[in-house]
Specification:
alpha+beta, FAD/NAD(P)-binding domain, Flavocytochrome C3, Chain A, domain 1, 2 domains, seven-stranded mixed beta sheet, six-stranded mixed beta sheet, 21 strands, Succ_DH/fumarate_Rdtase_cat_sf, oxidoreductase, oxidoreductase activity, FAD/NAD-bd_sf, Succinate dehydrogenase, flavoprotein subunit (Fumarate reductase)-like protein
């Protein structure tokens, strides 16, 4: 059993396979696992967990599924929405059994979620999540080969995967045979040609994801005749701090902050979501905006390590009054949005742009994460999860519900392991 990619999806699957007594080999392109997970906030949405119950939060997979479908206006794949929502709690519980100390963020709601269901480690970073997953995998005896860039898949005439070929940093090529293959490797956000072809609105946007998102899973799918789906779906973010290059939490917007353009005007409803905000920000003069907020929102922002690092790098500007804020933005005080009255003074401002984080389309899969052909039939022993597969965000930027990326990685990795366990038993 081989897994391509040792991010959240691959490591979750490996741990679940080890729990089932099945050996597997993880192939990771980087010298140390990190990928998109390490760059994320590390928040995993899940419904009906014991962590929620301990904090008095009532939730259910059905309610979670309703929220996902509502955010996508019913365009997300129903079979995956249902499967991921139902598997989310079990996936979180399985990781908790390996020592990951999850708690639920309950200070604010992310856009589209009707209850608090974002599970996080106390450090509240994707890097901490990856470190904890790696420790758990090492303790469980998972086999991992790093610096191994998979370049080819081998299939027989019946579309059964026989093995993969990978390349070492020194150019040496190696091969490994496998009974089954799980792709948890990447999306295509780091491939300019594919972004230009499939996501033209993001062609000139900053890519704030991992360089490993080179679209190899999608290209392998094209080569072997696999089905592809939701290729227009992606996670953008309208709060990428410039020029410091850091992610600013959207919690500030959800707690009353506003985004103003170079004329001091508010130009969209920030509470709709940070993903679609990326497009709105890029439409503004210079492709940038200012996050403006008061003391209460600043205190909340400082709870997040990414913001503290950006502040230390000089991203935060503070104005004693409207005139000073106008000088920071470069507009007239009279042109400033009236919504500022609810915030201060003093006013705090951070300059941001819209960025592409990761794609949400990819290999078409069934509810067991088995890769499908265009006619709906499945490959005998090829599975996909996370960025390699279609997600549950529909086919447009506005369908992304906060946490959908890690949902498809963690729930998808757990489901794929269950599918593989059943296949290997029979």
């Amino acid at each position: 059993m081989a897994i391509v990619g040792a991010g959240a999806g691959g490591l979750t699957a490996a741990l679940a396979l080890r729990d089932a007594g099945i050996d597997c080999l993880l192939l990771e392109r980087d010298a140390a696992p990190g990928g998109s997970t390490a760059l994320s906030s590390g928040f995993i949405p899940a419904a009906g967990t014991r962590m929620q119950r301990a904090q008095g939060i009532a939730d259910s997979p059905a309610r979670f599924a309703q929220d996902v479908l509502a955010k996508t206006d019913g365009t997300a794949a129903p079979h995956l929405v249902r499967a991921y929502a139902e598997a989310s709690a079990a996936a979180i519980e399985s990781l908790a059994a390996h020592g990951l100390a999850f708690e639920v963020l309950d200070g604010f709601l992310y856009p589209g979620h009707s209850v608090h269901r974002m599970h996080t480690l106390p450090q509240r970073t994707g890097a901490a999540l990856m470190a904890a997953l790696q420790r758990a995998a090492q303790a469980a005896g998972c086999d991992l080969i790093t610096s191994s860039l998979v370049t080819e898949l081998w299939l027989d005439a019946g579309d059964r995967v026989l093995g993969v070929g990978f390349e070492r940093p020194d150019g040496r090529r190696e091969q490994v045979a496998c009974e089954a293959l799980l792709l948890c490797c990447n999306g295509f956000g780091g491939n300019p040609a594919l972004v230009g072809e499939l996501l033209p609105s993001m062609r000139d946007a900053i890519f704030a994801g991992h360089a490993g998102n080179d679209g190899s899973a999608l290209l392998w799918g094209r080569d072997i005749g696999a089905g592809l789906a939701d290729l227009g779906g992606y996670q953008g973010h309208g709060s990428w701090v410039v020029p410091q290059g850091a992610l600013m939490t959207w919690a500030v917007m959800m707690q009353g902050g506003v985004q103003l353009n170079a004329h001091g005007r508010r130009f969209h409803d920030e509470t709709r979501g940070y993903s679609e905000a990326a497009v709105e920000v890029l439409r503004q003069p210079g492709g940038t905006a200012w996050n403006v907020f008061g003391d209460r929102q600043l205190a909340l922002a400082r709870e997040f390590p990414d913001f503290r690092e950006a502040e230390a790098a000089g991203a935060l500007r503070t104005a004693a009054d409207r005139q000073a804020l106008a000088a920071i933005i470069g507009c007239t005080a009279g042109g400033l949005a009236p919504e500022l009255e609810r915030l201060g003074p003093p006013f705090h401002a951070v300059r941001v742009t819209g960025a592409l984080f990761h794609t949400q389309g990819g290999l078409d899969i069934d509810a067991g994460c088995r890769v499908r052909r265009p006619d709906g039939s499945v490959f005998p022993n090829l599975l996909a999860a996370g960025g390699a597969a279609r997600g549950v965000s529909g086919n447009a930027v506005w369908g992304y519900l906060s946490g959908n990326g890690l949902l498809s990685a963690v729930a998808g990795g757990w489901i794929a392991a269950r599918t593989l366990s059943a296949q290997l038993r029979t």
